[in-house]
Amino acid sequence: MSTELTHYDLLGVAVNAPKDDIRAAYQDKLANVRAARAKEEETKRPSDDVLRAARDEEARLRSAWQVLSDPVQRERYDHQVGLDDTS
Fold this sequence. Notes:
The chain has about 90 residues and is mostly helical. Helices cover about 70% and strands about 0% of the residues. It has helices at about 5-10, 20-40, 50-70, 70-80.
């Protein structure tokens, strides 16, 4: 099995979390990443690596939200990562 974080891990929510909780977690994480990126952009010499990492993290968060906010995609994702057998 991959050591890659699941969308649930990335957002810090339970596998059975309702959509509202997932949305709140997504918005919080996205706000934190954007704040960190903005802070870096304000420095005299912003690090390209830090900015790139922030953009990558935003993309991962958006992808997780896109999948987990759609019931059909979420069910497919759960099956794909082996979470559909949990109770």
